[in-house]
Amino acid sequence: MPEWCPKCKAMLPPGLQKCPSCGAKLTAIQGNETSNKEIFWLSAYIIGIALIPILIALGIGILCIVFFR
């Protein structure tokens, strides 16, 4: 995954401490940051796991109400 300089927006190879274009200092762990996309999908996965049993229970409850009145 390409890395970008926060100051001049130049594309950088991984592992640099200083931008060769503008000389800006880069963060030490720039390559290990978690992207918003990864956080979104992880959250959606966890919420999905929690909601599936609730939705199944609601579906069974509605079926019981409808068919066993």
SSE layout:
Layout: E1 3-4, E2 11-12, H1 36-67
Antiparallel strand pairs: 1-2
Largest sheet: 2 strands, antiparallel
* SSE run: EEH
Oligomer: single chain
Helix content: 40-55%
Provide a count of the helices. 1
Secondary-structure class: mainly alpha
Ends apart, CA distance between termini = 59 Å
In spatial order, strands of the major sheet run 1-2
Give the total of domains: 2
> What average pLDDT do the residues reach?
84
- Counted beta strands: 2
Shape: rod-shaped
Strand content: 5-15%
Explain what you see.
The protein is 46% helix and 6% strand. By secondary structure, the protein is mainly alpha-helical. A two-stranded antiparallel ribbon has the order 1-2. The model has no long low-confidence stretch (mean pLDDT 84).
Please tag this protein with its features:
mainly alpha, 2 strands, 6% strand, 46% helix, 69 residues, two-stranded antiparallel sheet
In short:
The chain is mainly α. 46% of the residues lie in helices and 6% in strands. It contains 1 helix and 2 strands, in the order E-E-H.
